[in-house]
Amino acid sequence: MFEYQEDATLRINPPLVCLLTMLATSAWANDKENVNPSCQLVPEANCGWAELRKLKAPGIDLHDGQFMATRLDEAELAGANMSGSHLQLTNFYKANLRGVDFSQSHMHAVNLIGANLEGANLEGVNLLDANLSGANLKGAKIDRALWTAANLSGATWVDGRVCAQGSKGECR
């Protein structure tokens, strides 16, 4: 993709960059089928890129799993254990995550728009660049959570107040 010349300039290979962008975009959209049919919903699962929209699995134990870029839109996972999991780019749009244990999970750039995280355990979670607009965080445990650049616009904060539009990294 990148090539160094003797004169120390950097040349970018546009066709390769375009191809990688298209692959990443299509995988993120993941609108047609399950791109990880080997995904098994067990502890330490390898379910990256899986299509699990509207999954109904309250209380399931999925600790230390790998769910990178997995589609869990509108999933019912209340009381589940996802502690220590890798959830970067995972889509939890409007999911019921009430009381879910996400402690020590990596949740960089996750989509939590409109998700119910009431009473969830987010202790030690990395939420860098996460989108929590309109999410419900009332009563969630947030000690040592990393909120850098997280979108909290319209989210209900742990104390019940609604975060102002434009809240980034902290509830204003």
UniProtKB/TrEMBL annotation:
UniProt entry tagged with the keyword Signal: yes
Pfam family, one: Pentapeptide
InterPro entries per UniProt: 5peptide_repeat, Pentapeptide-BTB/POZ_domain
Superkingdom: Bacteria
Entry-linked SUPFAM superfamilies: Pentapeptide repeat-like
Protein species of origin: Magnetospirillum gryphiswaldense (strain DSM 6361 / JCM 21280 / NBRC 15271 / MSR-1)
Listed name of the protein: Pentapeptide repeat-containing protein
Signal peptide per UniProt: 1-29
Keywords: Signal
